[in-house]
TrEMBL record:
GO CC terms of this entry: cytoplasm
Organism this protein belongs to: Planotetraspora kaengkrachanensis
One MF annotation (Gene Ontology) recorded for this entry: aldehyde dehydrogenase (NAD+) activity
InterPro entries on file: Epimerase_deHydtase, NAD(P)-bd_dom_sf, NAD(P)-dependent_oxidoreduct
Protein name: dTDP-glucose 4,6-dehydratase
Gene3D superfamilies: NAD(P)-binding Rossmann-like Domain
Signal sequence region: none
Pfam families: Epimerase
Highest taxon, organism lineage: Bacteria
Amino acid sequence: MRIFLAGATGVIGRRMVPLLVEEGHEVTALTRRPDRAAALRASGAEPVVADALDPASLAAAVREAAPDIVMHQLTDLATGDFAANAALRRQGTRNLVDASLAAGVRRMVAQSIAWIYEAGDEPADETAPLDLAAPGERGTRVAGAAALESAVQEMPEWIVLRYGEFYGPGTWYAPDGLVADMARAGRLAAKDDVVSFVHADDAATAAVLALTWPADCAVNVCDDEPAPGREWVPAFCAAVGALPPPPADAGRQGWARGADNHFARKHLGWAPRYPSWRDGFAGLAGDPVTR
Ligand SMILES: NC(=O)c1ccc[n+]([C@@H]2O[C@H](COP(=O)([O-])OP(=O)(O)OC[C@H]3O[C@@H](n4cnc5c(N)ncnc54)[C@H](OP(=O)(O)O)[C@@H]3O)[C@@H](O)[C@H]2O)c1
């Protein structure tokens, strides 16, 4: 198939390119940066330089590529600017959906997040309502992801991947990443908030499988073991050479409940190579530094 991959140089996109090429797909890979074109070409994709926030140049890029499927792995998180990321989710997605519809594309597979659900006692499955009334910074994040999801649903066929927290080489949770730096600086608290993780390699595999998943569904893509900080933080600290922090006495925020991956695992045939962050974190120390 002909695939247009927006976000091809990101932490998931760059893992997807070789997987897609290996499966025989023709991949057009979007970047804003001409200096990244050679690496994309070397990994088997046809690079195209355009900004997703510039509707005309994005529309031209999609039209020229004439893809069967558009993969949306756009985020703006390299500097941890959540407001910029929410703006990209909102406006970049709007532009990408418009460009795709104008080019006659049928299917879009898009990256969302698995911590946008309302408060609850159990890990959320995909039927749980979104936390649209959340205030403050969380409200901005939820609204950005919700805007992305609702724009993607305008496509004739859509799949929304609600990813858990990425870890692995090139992520914030790599030994050279932001969260590892926080841990070594003693600024990572072991709270009761529950997190669902997913290794970046497993996130990429799910996106490739989603090319052929039944249309029109949101899917939690996360590992089997949602866990409170008081469990995962000490294991993460050990993996990245930080001293474990004392348990924090904060209580769980209701929305910090983790996500249930039953649908992806039992009905869509996704089997993560790292079913638990426990195994994945243990391998972090040996991972190559990628930043
Ligand atoms: N679920 C999660 O836990 C989650 C999700 C996403 C990110 N993160 C974290 O955020 C960190 C940064 O993510 P990242 O490495 O993927 O980088 P990023 O800076 O978020 O960029 C991701 C992709 O989006 C593209 N992009 C961004 N803005 C664009 C625009 N206006 N037009 C066209 N393309 C645009 C980038 O392309 P160019 O820069 O080449 O143009 C890149 O391919 C990761 O290390 C990860 O840990 C976590």
